[in-house]
Amino acid sequence: MRKEAHFATKGNRSPLEAPPALLERLASVDSTPSGGPALVAAIARMSEAYTRGRDALTEVGESREGHRARLRFFLPRDLPKATRPLLELAERGLLPRRTGLRLLDLGAGLGTTTLSVARALSLTGADGTLSVLAVDADARALETFARIVAEPLEGFSPIALETRAGRLPEALGSIRGSYDLITLGLVLNEVTDPLALVTSAARLLADEGVLLVLEPALRETTRALMEMRDALADGPLAILGPCPHHGPCPMLPNARDWCHDAADVPLPSPLDTLASEAGLRDDRPTYAWLALGKRARPIDVYHRVVSHRLPSKGKLELVVCAPEGELLRARRLDRHASDANAAFSEASRGDRLVIEGTRRGDALVVGPDDAVGRA
Ligand SMILES: C[S@@+](CC[C@H](N)C(=O)[O-])C[C@H]1O[C@@H](n2cnc3c(N)ncnc32)[C@H](O)[C@@H]1O
C-alpha cells in the first residue's frame, strides 16, 4: 500500500489490514453456530448504536448479539485505528524503545486496541512480549479478550495479558507502577469526566511513555476530544499528535469542522460482504486521535492533511493544519504538477507533508518548483 509501503507485509495486502490469523482466531472464539443473517442484523444494530442511538450503546454492546458483532466485525475492522497512529509515532522515534513494553489498556473491551498495538509492534520489528493490563467494566468482554490472545497470533507481537474488571475512573485507584503505553480506545465518550480520566491515567505514564486516545470520528465526539486537547495543551503533557503545533486548535472555532483520520485500507473478506449486507455506508475505519507524552514536544515540522482531497477544475486543494497553528488551504494547479511536488497529488486525509509554497491570505500556493514531500 502507498502510505505504509516501508513496513513489511506479505503480498499486496496492506499492513493495516486484519491478518488472516486474526480472522481465524475470532471465528474459533465465536461459540455461536454460524448464522449469517443474525450476524448481519447484529452488526447493523451495533452500528446504529455507535453512530446514532448512543444512549443504548452499553445495553447493545453488552448484549449477546452485540458481543458477537463486536467480535466478528468491529474488532477486525477497527484494528487499523490505533495501528496507524502508532506506526507514525514509531517512525517519528516517539515510542519507548525498551524491550517488552508495558501497556495499560483502559476500556479494553474485546482487546481491539491491544491487538492494534501488538500489530504495530510486530510491523516495526519491536522485540519482546507486550505486557498488558486490560481494564473494562464488561467482565465478559475481558474473558473473550483473554481467549483471543491465549495463543500467539501470527503477525502480532506476543501478548502477556492480565485483565481487571472494574469501572473507570475508580479502577485506576488500584493500579500501581508505570506504563510505556496507555490507551483509551473509543471509551472516553462513554465516561462522565473524560478530562479527569485522562489526567489521572497520565500519572501512570513512564517518563518516555505515550498515552494514546482514540475516539469515534463523529462530529460531536471528535470535537469533544479537540476541546479536551486544548484544555490539556495548557498543562504539563506534550501533544505528540496529530497536531503539528502546541497552540489552540484552529479547527475548533468553526462548529462544522472536526479533525479526524481515515485509514485508507480495504476491508478483508468476509468483512466487506458483512458491511454491505448490514448497509454500512462507509466501511473505512475512521477515527479521531490524540497522543500525549511527558517529554517536550518534538521539533519535527510538518503539515497535517485535515480534509479529504478537494479536486476542482484545474486544481487540487487540501486543507492542512500548519506548524504555525493555522488552518491553510494548500492549492496546486494541475498544470503546476511536477516531480518536486508529486507527493501533493497522492496525499489524503491524515497524511503528514512538508509543503513549500507561497502564502496568499489563508492559501498556501504550491508552484511547479515548490517541493512537497512526506514528512
Ligand atoms: C467501544 S468499546 C471500545 C473497546 C476497545 N478499546 C476498542 O477500541 O475497540 C468501549 C469499551 O469501554 C467500556 N467502558 C465504557 N465505560 C466504561 C467505564 N466507565 N469503565 C470501564 N469500562 C468502560 C465498555 O465496556 C466497552 O468495552
Description:
This protein is an alpha/beta fold and 375 residues long. The chain folds into two domains: 79-265 and 284-293, 3-Layer(aba) Sandwich (Rossmann fold), CATH 3.40.50.150; 303-374, OB fold (Dihydrolipoamide Acetyltransferase, E2P) (Beta Barrel). The protein has helices spanning 20-29, 36-51, 57-62, 64-78, 80-91, 112-123, 139-148, 194-202, 219-233, 271-277, 342-346, and strands at 102-106, 130-136, 159-165, 179-185, 205-216, 238-241, 261-262, 286-293, 303-305, 310-312, 315-321, 327-333, 352-355, 358-360, 363-365, 372-374. Strands 1, 2, 3, 4, 5, 6, 7 and 8 form an eight-stranded mixed beta sheet that branches. Strands 9, 10, 11, 12, 13, 14, 15 and 16 form an eight-stranded mixed beta sheet that branches. Helix 2 packs across helix 4. The protein is globular. Residues 1-11 have low confidence and may be disordered. The structure holds S-adenosylmethionine (SAM). The site of S-adenosylmethionine has 18 residues, from helix 6.
Name the helix and strand elements from N-terminus to C-terminus, one letter apiece. HHHHHEHEHEEHEHEEHEEEEEHEEEE
CATH topology assignment of the largest domain: Rossmann fold
**Structure class:** alpha/beta
User: So, CATH architecture of the largest domain?
Assistant: 3-Layer(aba) Sandwich
Overall pLDDT score = 91
Q: What is the β-strand count? A: 16
The helix fraction, in percent, is 25-40%
Full CATH superfamily name of the largest domain: Vaccinia Virus protein VP39
Q: What does the radius of gyration come to?
A: 20 Å
- Write out the distinct hetero groups bound to the structure: S-adenosylmethionine
**Count of the domains:** 2
Counting DSSP H or I runs of 4 or more residues, the number of helices is 11
User: What low-confidence regions span 5 or more consecutive residues with pLDDT below 50?
Assistant: 1-11
Largest sheet: 8 strands, mixed
Q: What global shape is seen?
A: globular
Q: At the first level of CATH, what is the class of the largest domain?
A: Alpha Beta
